[in-house]
Write a structure and sequence with these properties.
This protein is about 35% helix and about 15% strand. The chain is α+β, with helices and mostly antiparallel strands. The chain has 2 domains: about 5-80, Ubiquitin-like (UB roll); about 90-155, [2Fe-2S]-binding domain (DNA polymerase, domain 1, Orthogonal Bundle), CATH 1.10.150. The protein has a 5-stranded mixed β-sheet, sandwiched between helices. Strand 1 (about 5-10) and strand 2 (about 15-20) form a beta hairpin. Helix 3 (about 90-95) packs across helix 6 (about 140-155) and helix 4 crosses helix 5.
Length: about 160
């Protein structure tokens, strides 16, 4: 299939790529745009490692053809915070030990950002539902759940640093 030009706004910057329409958003982000923070775990939409926000909704980028993402606004892990000033979710994951091997972490963080955007003070049930579809083999989830609660408190109090 021949390449076509697609535009998308990635982390607030308009980008153009020339790729086949069925190229996966995951591959475009990683290989065409050099944004390797988004990870491929299963390649089947089962693990959540490749999660990004597309037009404000959490999606598995391994399942999204670029033709569907053309013109969309995409937020990847690289756009969540900066090294000098981490987003409260990133900071909470570090402080609570919610990030271990790192494969699931970008997807977990984006799922948490999405969750806290919808439910600033989530219940345990909302946390479990919000992270459903994101698998972790290292933490046993308790540290991740603690990180979500800590980030919610930090964001509610306005503690952005």
């Amino acid at each position: 299939m021949s390449a076509r030009r697609f535009s998308l706004c990635v982390n607030g910057v308009e980008r153009f790529v020339d790729v086949p329409p069925m190229a996966r958003l995951l591959d475009v982000l990683r290989h065409e745009l050099g944004l390797t923070g988004t990870k491929e775990g299963c390649g089947e939409g089962e693990c959540g490692s490749c999660s990004v926000l597309m037009n404000g909704e959490l999606v598995n980028s391994c399942l999204v053809p670029i033709a569907q993402a053309g013109g969309a606004s995409i937020l990847t892990i690289e756009g969540v915070g900066e090294q000098a000033r981490l987003h409260p979710v990133q900071k909470a994951f570090l402080e609570c030990g919610g990030a271990q091997c790192g494969i699931c972490t970008p997807g977990m963080i984006l799922a948490t950002v999405h969750l806290l955007g919808k439910h600033p003070r989530p219940t345990q049930e909302e946390i479990h539902e919000g992270l459903n579809g994101n698998l972790c083999r290292c933490t046993g989830y308790m540290r991740i759940f603690e990180a979500v609660e800590k980030a919610a408190c930090a964001m509610e109090s306005g503690a952005m640093e």
